[in-house]
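Section handout 9: paired folding examples.
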Amino acid sequence: MCLTNSVRVKIGTGPHKNVAETTEVALRLKSIDVQLLRNWVVMVDGKAVSLPYVHKSISVEQQMGVILLNTQLGIKMQWNSRGRLELSLPNLYWGQLCGLCGNFNGKPHDDQTLRTLEPAHSDAQFGTSWQVSLELPSHSTLHSQDPHSRH
């Protein structure tokens, strides 16, 4: 079962145009949208914010060459604004995830599933299945667009 909160990562090419890297990260949590962009730019609900930024459900700061995003739900992101992204989650998400990071159930052999939750037959099929626009859907359409949401 996949959760309805959303993390989207945009992959682009690096300065040499022959290396793929993370160029943008978007996070949707209930009623807040956060985008981490290159050059240490952070957008919250479509507006650029200064760091450190604290909101009732998130905090974002720049520290030792990375942007740190912490949420009240225990989700933590570290991004170096050039390509390296690290996402850590508390155990309460165990077995409730899907997508490019796997399903977080401790069984790496079943991590590569398609959006339909069927096993992928190749890396290319797996990656293509999860390809999306970086634009986050509106809050009113998030649940209706998510094929794995609980009704």
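Moving on to protein 2 of 2.
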Amino acid sequence: MSTKESQVTFTFTNDIIKEALKSQFSNPKNKITEETVELICDISKALVTEAALRSAKQASMENKNLVNLEHVESILSQLMMDMV
């Protein structure tokens, strides 16, 4: 089996992350630092990358060429436990 390298890129916009966090604040005076937003973006990227890799591996183990929702669902519980 040959291995292929992919140059997939993705971004998490700081503004979207910041607004998502602000929407959960009960006090409108609460603030969030840019450093915190950047850290959450980095964590989100790592989580998405790991989920994609595990889902692709699961599909490969099933001799599938396409990753579908079932592959993602099958790796989620272990992924969440590994992130704790």
